[in-house]
Structure formats: structure tokens, C-alpha cells
Amino acid sequence: MLPGTRGRSGNLPQDLTSFVGRQREVADIRRLLSTSRLVTLTGIGGVGKTRLALRAAGESRRAFDDRVWLVALGELGDPMLVADATAAALGLREVSSRPPLDMVVDYCAERDLLLVLDGCEHLVEAVAGLADALLRACPGVRILVASREQLGIPGEVTVRVPPLEVPDPDRLPPPGGIPRYPAMTLFAERAVAALPGFGLTEENTRAVARICQQLDGLPLPIELAAARLRALSPQQILQRLTDRYRLLTIGHRGAPPRQQTLRMCIDWSYELCTDRERELWAHLSVFAGGFELDAAEGVRAADPGPDDVLDVVAALVDKSILIREDHGEVVRYRLLETLRDYGLEKLRSSGELDALRRRHRDWYEQLVQRAEAEWIGPRQVQWIRRLDREQANVRDALDYCLSDPDEAESALRIAAAMYLSWLARGVLGEGRRWLDRALACQSESPTAARVAALYAGSVLAVMQGDVPGGTALSAQARTAAAAVGGEEWTALARSASGYVAIFAGDLPRAVLDLEAAVRTFGVTGNPLRRVASLLGLALASGLRGEGRRSLACHEEILAITDGRGESMFRAYSLCTLGLAVGQRGESARATALLEEGLRLTRMLDDPLTCATCLEALAWVAAERQDCERAAVLMGAADAVGEESGIKKLVIPGLVGYQKRRRKQARAALGPRVFAAAMERGRDLGLGDAVAYALDEFAPAQASESTSVLTKREREVADLVAQGLTNREIAQRLVIAQRTAEGHVEHILTKLGFATRAQIAAWVAAGASAREPDRGTGRG
Length: 779
Hints:
GO terms for molecular function: DNA binding. By secondary structure, this protein is mostly helical.
């Protein structure tokens, strides 16, 4: 699976730490999923619902033809976006005004898959509606929910997640029997990360057992306690917990409730932090869905004090308050939801919450505006990926703006700048909802931000088929632009009118408006607006039958983007030119254009343009009489389109040509061979389909088991080649030894190898982009 792409294996994340115990619970959940279509795991925060759900789902992969998909809802604040988040997790792209729930139901209707809905307690009603709709209309769908609260709909089977089993400290088994107690094992494994070389001994076993007992076997408190071994011995940790435990139980019979135990441990962890660590913990709680270091530095107070933010972040990672996550070449940090709630509580009690939310909003407003300013440039792909990672934070920033009428202008600026990201990712419906909400806030007088938001809203509306809505917004854009003044804003309003006219069928008006916009943006030197207007002019000209003029617009787009390193608009123009040139019989140039476009779509993770490029390359292959290759590519194009939510790949204006090429390939091969080749293409998956189209390997080699290793797996493979043991790899990468072992096992499985020596030879040969020699299988 290529970085940034989804495939038929689903989207479950890799474990960052080892999974301890719970074998019986995993088996029970898998058994329930075989007989029940909705299973909900409930329990208090910190008991391990998410990890248990992901492990059970991961072990159930092979039971579902269309695999397992995670929908993370913990950071989603708006119940209206539950269906959007589900569509995005499935990799669906919005190409119409159909509600996201309908898209999800249609996609799942004939599929055999498992959906994992995680973090649902604050969205119970919306999640229940989604689950009910899927269960009624999609017989092959099963749903596994992790939530503090059950959904309460018919057919739901609820499983209460228990704490980890703890031994009686006064009746400890011999050392060899300790591993059967998961709470003890969890403490010991997390302790090694804090204190390399730590092990359970006769001197510390009883103290560790009492720690686990006092923490009620709850995984999160146990992990927080184990992280304290950097500074304290197990006996010292126990003493501090015992003192705090006594305070909780004064005046009460028996042990405190588990929720009290969790609170006690978090309080204790907070008090053991330095003043700077406590302050940063609270400040970082304003981030939703994680953050990167630059964001943490930006949201800090104007005078951050003597400590570097990185140093304090590193200290919080060491204490297991923050989770460090690798995202390709970028590191992000995240607070578990329970710890984030605690930090927000501290901000509320100190009266700092509003100020921190404003700084958070300010920072993300600047971020999205920088992305827009640099969109036509070499960092475009990085910006697309960054905004993907920051979705939850941008949503929070918009929510903050929309909660106060005085912040409406910021909402307009953020929403207008996010338009490009929503366009790139095909989340048109969500984009329109944010833009509509921002535009609904009345301002004293029109502003440039309002013109930009009206432009974005009108284009997204007509792209979803809402011509009346787009027409109304473009008319408002013209009025606002006239009030604001300046040729730049007048041109932007005319560009909006041009796009609306295309979808309304008024092509002469479209050409007139878009020509004017292109001229103005050429004078003002705005490459983004010029390229976007040229794209509309190319479309309008093509629909009018002015093919030569349309192609000239695309050639101009290529000229503008070539020297700037832009990818998104360039990929579309390359694909369009490739289609046109191929129909003229210029197969060599068509292939070159389409292959460049395909490389860009792979980098952009744009499956819809990718599917079009694959189909166009199939036509070129048919033109060259390589009909088997054509059929494989046609099958791949169909599958990639379907995986994005398109039932049938149709290229506007070329339906007849598409039918003729497919008929030609079927006639040349015969129905059976043609169908078999199409099926091979359908089985490739997105990453392997692109690799096949680019001749990176042959179709017989293209399978999920040999897909490209993840970045972390490549790092591990390189260390294996250097002769490092699993323990040494774990120490080098600062991960658990079991995690390192899991990575090595995944590498062996993907590459079809049996030994570490084969991995080393593969790395030495520089074979990361080709299939390995399978001369020696497992045995």
C-alpha cells in the first residue's frame, strides 16, 4: 500500500505499542461478530475499549471480503458530520449533491465489510442513525462500536470491557506465573520504555502487584504509573498511590469506584509534572485530533518562558501524557481523550480557555492562508497532506468563530482558504456547509473575504449539481465585489459566474466571464486564480465544440504550473490533454502525458483523476492492439472508481468512444479472456494498478502481499540489513520490542520471505520497488 492511499485491506492503524492480554475478550468479540451485526464495547475512559476494538477488528480482517474500516469520531464535534467522516474513512469522493449518508449506504449496500466506529459517546444519536441505516440497507455490513455509552438500537449486543486481571499481592504465584496476569505484564512492558532493562524481580513484584491492584487493573492509569519509573522505584510509586488512595477512601466503605481511581491517577500524574509541564498539558488540550510542534509553539502564550516547547513536549511524551505518532516524515503528538478532557477542565478553572481557543483559531487561520498562498507551488502536496492531518483542528477553529458573531470575518477567511483542500479531497458537502454557515453571519459591509467565500460556495454548489444555489451565491459575489472594489475581486466574481454558467448550460456567458477573469488575473499576477479560471474556460470551450481552444487552455495551465511545481491542476490538464491527443492517434505523446498525470495523482491521492488516466491509457493500449493490457487497465479503472464511490466510470463527452474501445478489446480477446483480464485489473487495488500502468511491475506480480512497505517498515528493514536484533531495533526507534517484532513479521509476510537474511539481501539489492525473489518460501 502506497503512503497516503487506501486499499482493499482497509485502514486500520498499526499498533504503536504492544497489545497485552485480552485474548478471551478478543475471541468473544469475534464470535459475537459472526452472529450479530452490531456489537458495542462500553466501559469507562481508560479501560482500553479502542485498543480492544482495533485488535478484534484486525484479527477479523479475513472474514470480510471488503475488509475492515475505522471511523475515528472522538475528535468530531458536530453530529451533522458523522456521515461525512464515515465517507472520508471509506475513501469516498463527493461528486453530486447527494447526502453523505446516502453515499455511504449505496457504497456499502453490496459489500462485505466491518466498520469500527470509535469514540461515539458524544454523538450517540447521530451514530445510532448511521448504524441503523447501514444495518437496514446493507446486509453484508457488520459494525463494531467503542463508546462509553451504548447506541440503544434494535439488534445491538453490548459488551462491557473489564479491567485487566490483577493477582492478589498476598498470594503471588511463582515468577513464571506472573505473565498470565495482564495488568502485571502491561506494567512491566511499559516500564521497559521508561527504564530500559527493567524486569520483575522478587524485590519489586509485590509492589508492582499492589500498584496494579490499587489502579483497579485499568490500562491507562497503569501506563501512567509505569512511566514514573524514570524517577521513582516501584515501591516509591506504590507509597505515593497509597497515600492518595487513603484520601479518597476516608469516610467511604470499601474501594472507590473505578472512575475515581482513574481520576486519582490522572491527578497524581498532573501533580508530579513540573509547572511548565502542567501549563503545557493544559494548553495542548485545545488541539483536536493531535498537533505538530510548530502548532504547539504557535498556540503557546506570547512569552513561553525559559523552557523550549520541544523540551516540555518531550518530557510529556516520556511521562506518557502525550502520544508520539509518525505520519510519514512528520511527527505528531496527541493527548488521549481522557487526558485532553482533564486539560480542558484545568483551562476552564483557570479562566484561560477562551484565550487559548482564540490563539488556536488565530494559528490555524494563518496556517490555511499560508496553504492557499503557496498552493501553486512545490509545497502543494505537503499542504494537502497537512490540511488532511489538521481537519479536526480546522473544524474546531471554525466552530469557535461561528460561536461569536464578532468572529464571522475569521470564519469567512478560514472557509475560503480551505476551499482548495475540500476540492482536492472531494469533500464538497462539508465544505459547502461550513461556507454556508460562515456566509450566514451578517457583516456590516462586504469584504474581500466574503467575496472569496461566495466564489468558493458557488463553485462547490454547481459541482454538486445545485445550479440554483450556485447562481444565487455568484450573484451575491458580484454585488459584494462591486462594493469592495478592485479588479481582483471583480474578476473573482466573474470567474464564479463563469463556472455557474457552465453548469447552467449558458456556454457563451461562461466563456465571456472566464475570458475576462483570465485576462485580469494575468495582469494582477495571481497564478492560482488564473489557473482555476483557465480550467473553467477549457471546460466551457470543449463543451462548445472548440476543442483546439480548450486544449490551448490546458497547455497554458501546464506552462504556468511547470516552473512552479504545482500538481493538482496540472494532473487534471495532463489527463485531459492525454485523452484528446490519444484520440488523434498520437499514442506516444498521449502515453507520456497520461503517465505524468498518473504519477501526480498517485502523489496527490486523487483516485478519480487516477481512474480517468487508467481508462485513457487503456484506450492507448487498445489503439496499439495490446488488448490484454487494455482490458487489465479498464478493470483497474472501474475498480478504482468504484472504491471512490462511483458506480460506473463515465468520462464526460467520451461515452461513445469509451464503449467502442471496450468493444474492440472484447472482440480481439474473446469474451472469456477479456473478462479474465478485466478481473485481474479489478484485483490490483489502487497502488498496484498505478504501478502496473507505469510498468513498474507485471500484473502477475501485483498483489497485496507485495505492496510497498510503509515508511516505518522500510526503516525496520534497513536496520535488519544492518544486523540489528529486534531488541536493538526497538531501542533505536524508541518502540516496544513486541512492536519491532510485529514490524519484522509484517515485512516477511509482505515480501514472501522466511528469514531476516532475505530481507537484508533485498535491501542491499535496492529492490524496494520490485517484487522480491520468492525462491525460498516460508517453511
